[in-house]
């Protein structure tokens, strides 16, 4: 993975991130320019990954008690005191299945292993996102709950990966 680099997202990455997010719906939720700018201010980990200096993916994550009204994030806020919640991880289609998701998760894990107890996320069950289910299972995530969102259009599996005891 030596041609890959992880960098902090900036305002100049907005067009790339919004387009990549849009191309990956409904696997991920909608991302507006206003929400993108909010994430730049409130997220604790908002990174892009580049391959040979070309952006190919991004990850947005938050620790507890941020002003963010996602019902999935709020679920973790209500059930865990210590976590970093992956709101979304998106990799361009041509770069999927190359280990980039694991590269990202290993990076966030190394940065938060002594700071929070869990890495948290949700994975779509309805509509089914089998690739994400397989990825998170392989990485070692465990389901801790399920809930409907987006007016019952989505059913998600709420999952955690234990970082420390």
Description:
By secondary structure, the protein is α+β, with helices and mostly antiparallel strands. It has a single domain, classed as Gcn5-related N-acetyltransferase (GNAT) (Aminopeptidase, 3-Layer(aba) Sandwich). It is 32% helix and 34% strand. The protein has a 7-stranded mixed beta sheet with strand order 1-2-3-4-5-7-6, sandwiched between helices. The chain is globular, with a radius of gyration of 15 Å.
* Quaternary organization: single chain
Share of residues in strands: 25-35%
Number of strands: 7
Shape: globular
Return residue spans where pLDDT drops below 50 for at least 5 consecutive residues. none
Specify the helix fraction band.
25-40%
- CATH architecture label name: 3-Layer(aba) Sandwich
Question: What class would the helix/strand composition place it in?
Answer: alpha+beta
Q: In CATH, what is the class? A: Alpha Beta
- The radius of gyration over CA amounts to 15 Å
Q: In total, how many domains does the architecture comprise?
A: 1
Mean pLDDT: 94
Instruction: State the CATH topology.
Output: Aminopeptidase
SSE topology string: EHHEEHEHEHEE
- Spatial strand arrangement across the major sheet: 1-2-3-4-5-7-6
Q: How many helical stretches? A: 5
User: Largest sheet at a glance?
Assistant: 7 strands, mixed
Summarize the structure.
The protein has 165 residues and is an alpha+beta fold.
Write the layout of secondary structure elements.
Blueprint (H helix, E strand, L loop, with lengths): L3 E5 L5 H10 L9 H10 L2 E7 L2 E9 L8 H9 L3 E9 L8 H13 L5 E9 L3 H10 L2 E8 L4 E9 L3
Parallel strand pairs: 4-5
Antiparallel strand pairs: 1-2, 2-3, 3-4, 5-7, 6-7
């Amino acid at each position: 993975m030596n041609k890959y680099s992880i960098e902090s997202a900036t305002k100049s990455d907005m067009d790339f991130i919004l387009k990549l997010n849009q191309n990956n719906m409904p696997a991920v939720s909608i991302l507006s320019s206003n929400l993108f700018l909010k994430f730049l201010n409130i997220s604790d980990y908002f990174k892009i990954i580049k391959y040979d200096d070309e952006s190919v993916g991004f990850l947005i994550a938050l620790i507890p008690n941020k002003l963010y009204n996602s019902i999935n994030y709020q679920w973790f806020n209500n059930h865990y005191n210590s976590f970093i919640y992956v709101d979304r991880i998106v990799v361009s289609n041509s770069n999927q299945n190359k280990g980039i998701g694991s590269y990202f998760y290993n990076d966030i894990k190394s940065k938060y292993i002594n700071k929070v107890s869990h890495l948290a996320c949700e994975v779509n069950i309805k509509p089914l996102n089998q690739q994400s289910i397989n990825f998170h299972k392989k990485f070692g995530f465990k389901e801790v709950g399920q809930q409907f969102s987006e007016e019952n259009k989505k059913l998600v599996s709420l999952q955690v990966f234990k970082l420390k005891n």
